[in-house]
Design a protein that fits this description.
With 372 residues, the protein is an all-alpha fold. It is 72% helix and 0% strand. The protein has 19 helices and no strands.
């Protein structure tokens, strides 16, 4: 990567001198992890590359945030929405790969023709690189090797951990991998472990915990039960329509407010609907219930798609979007709300349309499998 930066016409020492600015970005936006971390890590490269190519970096930064959000659909742990919904119905990592990952892949593939259309000028830019580029050796090769090994172990346990004699759930796998990573960081003295622990987004963890308390309060007061009964009145037992309505409604809501509270409330609402429509027994409302049949998946997958992809529409729809806008503002090119809509709205509409088709196909497949 250093050689690549040099090849674009920048002196490596100048690039390293700007490390302080990059560190300021990371400290300013360290509370936004998960998908937003990708934007933080790639921002310096994207901006410097755009400057070298003499193009505006605002468009590439917006697209990077959207790609980061969309990729969250690829795995069960890729986005808070997918993890919350998957955990609520006890969907395993491998089961999610079977039923939900394809939708995330389609959402990403949709971006290819759209990017060429939305970024016509940038897409056509060509600039020859020097032929004498040389990659520099790694400063900590053993640290890099151990880090990759931890990553491989984590992915293997995500895939097969729940099939072991003593099953290991995805949250336990994540904690195990994080612990091993801290041990490696401590051994190689990359950074003080105390500083890393302080950088954990404790505010968001507490926020999510409080959301579950609020959702439980809404359940006890009967508000969600009333809404579930209304859904039964409006849609009856037509789960296909419910899946599409949930997809569209959550997609719209997630464009304006954080998707975590929306998903947390909708999970209970949808479970209540299944019970009210007499499609599931009453004890399905219990958190420990694991008997969700495959024909309910279209509704839950639609919920995941709407929550994850709906945030791509606006600059405030996802943390990665906010981070991208903040970095661009610090570099003197603020992303206006309307400017983001130019990219976000057409991409989100196309992604939700593809998701709707996927939900319909999934409904047809699971309905046939269940003989409904």
């Amino acid at each position: 990567m250093p050689g690549y930066v040099e090849g674009l016409g920048f002196d490596l020492e100048e690039t390293m001198a700007r490390r302080q600015t990059i560190d300021q970005w990371e400290r300013s936006w360290q509370k936004y992890w998960a998908n937003a971390t990708t934007v933080v890590l790639l921002a310096p490269i994207i901006i410097r590359t755009a400057i070298a190519l003499e193009v505006d970096f605002m468009g590439p930064m917006i697209v990077t945030a959207i790609i980061s959000n969309s990729a969250g659909m690829l795995t069960l742990v890729g986005d808070p929405a997918t993890f919350l919904v998957g955990s609520a119905i006890h969907l395993s990592f491998v089961q999610y790969l079977r039923w939900g990952s394809l939708c995330g892949l389609l959402a990403l593939l949709v971006l290819v023709p759209l990017i060429r259309w939305l970024m016509k000028d940038t897409w056509k830019v060509r600039k020859a690189l020097p032929s004498d580029l040389r990659a520099r050796p790694l400063e900590r090769p053993w640290f890099c090797l151990l880090s990759v090994m931890i990553l491989v172990l984590m992915m293997a346990l995500f895939l097969f951990g729940e099939q072991l004699p003593n099953p290991i759930a995805p949250p336990a796998v994540a904690i195990l991998a994080a612990t091993l990573a801290l041990l490696v960081i401590y051994e190689f003295r990359v950074a003080p472990v105390g500083k890393i622990l302080r950088d954990i987004d404790w505010n968001t963890l507490l926020f999510i915990a409080c959301l579950f308390l609020i959702m439980e309060a809404l359940t006890k007061t009967g508000i969600l039960r009333t809404l579930a009964l209304n859904m039964n009145t409006w849609f009856g037992s037509n789960t296909c329509v419910v899946a599409l309505v949930v997809l569209g409604a959550i997609g719209f809501a997630s464009a304006l407010i954080p998707n975590t509270p929306v998903v947390a409330g909708t999970i209970l609402l949808v479970k209540g609907y299944f019970v009210a429509a007499e499609l599931m027994p009453e004890h399905a409302l219990a958190p420990t219930f694991t008997g969700w049949p495959s024909w309910t998946l279209p509704v839950f997958v639609g919920m995941m798609c709407g929550a994850t992809l709906g945030g791509n529409a606006t600059v405030i729809g996802a943390s990665a979007n906010v981070v991208s806008a903040g970095i661009c503002r610090e570099q003197g090119k603020p992303i206006r709300f309307v400017a983001f809509l130019r990219y976000g709205v057409p991409i989100t509409l196309c992604q939700l349309a593809v998701s709707a088709v996927y939900v319909l196909v999934l409904y047809w497949l699971t309905r046939g499998a269940a003989g409904r």
